[in-house]
Structure formats: structure tokens, C-alpha cells
Amino acid sequence: MRRKDRMRNQVALGLAISALAFGASAEPDDDRLVVNGEIEMVTETAAPEHMEGVKTIYSGWRFRSDETQAFQIDDFDNPSMIWVETAQEVWETPEGAADKSCSSCHEGVESMAGIKAVYPKWSDAAGKVVTLEQQVNNCREERMEAEAWKYDGGDMTNMIALLASVSRGMPVNVAIDGPAQSTWEQGKDIYYTRFGQLEMSCANCHEDNYGNMIRADHLSQGQINGFPTYRLKNTKLNAVHARFKGCVRDTRAETFKPGSPEFVALELYVASRGNGLSVEGPSVRN
Amino acid sequence: MIRFAIISASVVFGASLACAEGIAPQQVQFEDGAIAASLTGVAGDPVSGAELMNKGSGNCIACHAVTELEHLAFHGEIGPPLDGVADRWTEEELRGIVADAKQMFEGTMMPSFYKVSGFTRLGDDYTGDAHPGGEVTPLLTGQEIEDVVAYLMTLKEE
Q1: Is the preceding peptide bond at A228 cis, omega within 30 degrees of 0?
Q2: What is the three-class DSSP state of A119?
Q3: CA dist., res. A271 & res. A263, Å (int)
Q4: Is A105 a catalytic residue?
Q5: N or C: fewer beta carbons within 10 Å in chain A?
Q6: pLDDT digits (tens, 9 = 90+) for A208-252
Q7: Domain that holds residue B145
């Protein structure tokens, strides 16, 4: 006990010294995000009531460098938009034994405005919480009689990017009560579990240490309002479960699979930590 | 790898041998978070310790800043800077912190570098696959812990 108190003082003192010595920025920056000069993004707001350890939530955009941020300010500079256009064509292209396209049932993709903001969500038909990817595959298999896409493959991620793009600027608002509650609780458990040989939880990095540097990385809150994200690091669109997988792998743990019940639950929980931020996808990160 | 295999064999063949070859992760005795005796009986090498601070399974500066290592890029801010750490802790305490920091600081985020069991969903290195089973290699070998501790003992300000 005495030892721990001694420690705590040193940590406080030490951190002050380190900020001086290395001049690192420990906070999200103050930049405002307005996309295409018209979509005003909420990148900072009060944390939803269910969050105990965090008062204010921030989009990952606020933790990126000015150079990275700039890619997302205008669609003309946002590399994701090529794939959004590809998906726009797919939206209108009939496929499968039923010879139907998405537009056969849903008309223009604008009819999907607001959808990305409320997924994952409880489905009475499925009797479980489903992600937008699962809903898309459900339409493909049941209504189009076409093959399901790979959960985090290119076709799927492009389509999710298109669906996100028409919800941009709307507040994330996933439901965590009612029939979704037990899935949400499961996701919360996973969020706080210390996995792998490094014994680290999502919360260790994204709740306890957001704003801090871990080696060369400036830790954000690990929000998913910006997904899918184009990453400068791998120059492609990244699906949210692929990102989860990478973060779990980095703890030297056995990961869960994209589309697994565990990652669906985790996605619901992490999405709910971003309730109130704007849908930003497809976003740009490093 | 090889050193670890030798240590495990000595565990099987007798405690006296284990003493001669070093102390395996499962055998380590902590007292108030500290480890009294050298894990290997071989004095640590601070030069090799300094290298471990930067790379491999050590990578301590991912989380800690060290002014003396300022020539290396990107020091983390997760843990306290380690400048003057030898003024704050004894060699025995530092050995305990590096081997298993959770013994000294309950619930700390710092990984346990000399621990081989008690993990949740242990992976096979950084592949994302499950650990194949069998022996678990600690993040650092006993001698690597001694080397890192020897380096930390050079970080004095007073």
C-alpha cells in the first residue's frame, strides 16, 4: 500500500517531466471537421450515461496529424471515395437467381440515410443483434438469392462505406437496452478483458491512455464512428472487425473471427461508447 | 528458446540443478514485489539491457521515456519516465518489477515479462492464432531480465 502511494506521486511528477522533455501532445487537438464545406461533424461531445470512466468522447479524427486530417475534409481528397463509387454501381446491378439489385427493393441509396447510425441493432427476424454486414448478406441470400460476401472482404466493406457515406453527420445512436442488452453486456465484458501474453484490454489503451503515445502511435479512444476507414498504412478500406482483430492480435492473443458473435457484441458495445458522435465513415486514418 | 528449454529440464531433474541453471518463471519468489536473488547467477550486461529497452520483446520505451536513450525515436507516455529509476528502487525491486510488475503495482498495464501461465486466449506470438499448447516462452529470458535490470541500475540522478 505504502509502495503504491509512493508510486503514484512519482507517476504524476514523471509525466510532467516527460511532457517538458519530449514536448508530446497528450490531448486531442482543437480542430473542427466540416466535410465538403457542408457536413458539420460532431467530433467531441459528452459521453453517454452508461460510460463511467470517461466524461467526453472524441472521434479518432481529433488524434490524427493535420496532414492525415486533411484527407477527410473534402471527398475529392478522400481515397475511400473510389470504392464508394464502385459500391454505388453494385447497388444498382442485379445479381443472383432472383435477378434483383439493392435498388430493386430500396430505390436510391439515399433511402439508407440514418441506417448506419443505429447498427448493430436487434433483429426480431434473426432473434439476435445483427451488424450492417450481416443485414447486407441477409438481403443478398434471402432476397437476391446471391452468394453472401466475405464478412470483411472488399465487396462488403465498399458497400458499408457507401451506406455510411449517406449517413454522414448524423449522430451515432445504437440501442443498448431491451433485447439488445445481454449482447451489449457481453461486449462490455470483452472490452474490459485483458487478453493475450501482454494482458491488455481495449480499455487499457483506449480508455485509460487515450491521448498518450504508445511508441509512435497517438492513442485515440478507439471509436468506430469513422468506419470503414481508409488507412494510409495499408492504403485500403478497413472493416471494423478487421481493426478489432488487429488490436487483439497485438496483445499476443488468439483473436476472434470477423463476424463472430464475440465481435458483434464488441461492436455493439464500442458503437455505444460513441453514441452522440457523428457518423464519419468512410474516414481517413493512419 | 534454448536457454528456456534448459531451465525447464532442470526443473524436472532436480531442484539443486535448477539453482545452478537459474530460476524458472514458475519458481520465482516475490517478496513485497521484489525478487531477492539473480534469476541466473550470471551478472547482467547493461549494454545488452539497453538494446532490449528499444526492441524485441522488451520494447520498454514503447511505454517509458528515457532521456539517455533520446537518440531513439518515439518514447511512449504510458508509464513513468525511467530517469533516475535506480534512485527510487533497489536492484531486487527492479528485478521484481521487470519480471512481473503486477506483483508491485496491482492492476498495472505493464506486461509481465517473466510469466508463463494464467493468460486469457494466449496467442501464438503475434499471428492472432491460438498458442499451439505446450511450453510458453516468457517475453524475456531470465538473463534478459538480468540485463535490463543491470541497465536500469545505471539510471541514477542523485
Answers
A1: yes
A2: coil
A3: 12
A4: no
A5: N
A6: 999 999 999 999 999 999 999 999 999 999 999 999 999 999 999
A7: 2-152
Report the candidate in A174, A203, A175 with the shortest Cα–Cα distance to residue A191.
A203
Write down the pLDDT at residue A12: 37
Burial profile A162-187: b = 16 or more Cβ within 10 angstroms, e = fewer: bbbbbbbbbbbbbbbeeebeebbebb
Domain assignment present for residue B158? The answer is: no
A268, A66, A257: which is closest to B129 by C-alpha?
A: A257
CA distance B129 to B123: 6
Query: Is B128 among the domain residues?
Result: yes
Q: With beta carbons less than 8 A apart as the criterion, state whether A229 and A243 touch.
A: yes
**Residue A247 vs residues A147, A203, A243, A270: alpha-carbon distances, Å:** 30, 12, 6, 13
| Subunit contact A208:B81, Cβ cutoff 8 A | no
Q: Rounded distance, CA A141 to CA A148, Å?
A: 6
- Would residue B32 count as lying in a domain? yes
Interface probe with B: pick from A195, A219, A252, A286, most Cβ of B within 10 Å: A252
Query: Residue B157 domain-assigned?
Result: no
- Answer yes or no: do B120 and A195 touch at CB < 8 A: yes
Contact status, residue A267 vs residue A224, Cβ threshold 8 Å: yes
Q: What count of CB pairs under 8 Å joins A to B? A: 110
Q: Can you read off the three cell numbers belonging to residue A246?
A: 488487429
Interface contact A204-B109, CB threshold 8 A: yes
Neighbour-count burial for B73-83, b at 16+ CB within 10 Å, e otherwise: eebbbbbbbbb
Q: Are strands A229-231 and A283-285 parallel, antiparallel or unpaired?
A: parallel
- What is the number of domains present in chain B? 1
Closest-approach residue (CA) in chain A for B116:
A197
Q: Give B131's contacts in chain A (Cβ within 8 Å).
A: 254
Domain of B57, CATH number, reads 1.10.760.10
Q: Does the structure's ipTM exceed the value 0.95?
A: no
Dihedral sign computed on CA atoms, order A253, A255, A261, A266: positive
- The alpha carbon of residue A87 and the mean position of all alpha carbons in its chain are separated, in whole angstroms, by 19
User: Which chain A residue has its CA at the smallest distance from B34's CA?
Assistant: A3
Query: Distance, in angstroms, between B21 CA and closest chain A CA?
Result: 25
A197 in reach of chain B (CB within 8 A):
yes
Query: pLDDT, tens digit, for every residue of A31-54?
Result: 999 999 999 999 999 999 999 989
Average pLDDT over residues A191-219: 97
